[in-house]
Here is the input.
Amino acid sequence: TIHCKIGPSILNSNLASLGDECHRMMEEGADYLHLDVMDGHFVPAITFGHQMVQSLRKALPKSKCWFDMHMMVQDPDRFIKDMADAGADQYVFHVEATQDVDKTIRKVKEAGMKVGVAIKPKTPVEVVLPYVEHVDLVLVMTVEPGAGGQKFMDDMMPKVKTLRKRFAELDIEVDGGVSPDTIHHCAEAGANLIVSGTAVVKSESPRDVMVKMREAVRV
Ligand code: DX5
Ligand code: ZN
Here is the structure.
């Protein structure tokens, strides 16, 4: 079986005490943190930008915590430098949001971050195939980006399977509606980076939920 890492999405946690929430997630056993940036254009909502990330970085040094930036923004090139300077580790942008995907990939690498490409549910997996060799991960959305707490779309699993079949070593991330009840679909399809928001952060015991998720995929 594949080893899955679990990265809580803090989108639906108490944003007024985000630093503490992030700390808590790491203490409860998270492997990394998934930070959702929304710009009010690519998706209707707005969350936070690089200044928030910079503040979080002070609370959670690089050695302690991996920041996985999910950039739900139009024209992702705009934020690459700021996010790198703020201490982001990984920059995942949507192929739907940029004209020149290769150029964006190159810029993220030049800024010293790991790079990922994301696809929305309606985007066929074929769209990302030409870029896979040039990126560190592919993010397959399992809900429409824009909000936490939506229902997991298991009909996205064929995309994950296609990627896993062709790229045995690729990091494949899934995001949206993943919980102890749905994680097995993801792991069976071949995903190894598992984002989970509501199920983890809204729980009385995030630790128990993450343990349950790991048990569900036996890692
Ligand atoms: C959706 C975000 C996800 C989401 C995950 O736009 O990209 O990261 O917050 O939260 P849940 O697990 O609640 O779907
Ligand atoms: Zn996300």
Notes: The mean pLDDT is 97. Residues 5-216 form a domain with the TIM Barrel fold (CATH 3.20.20.70).
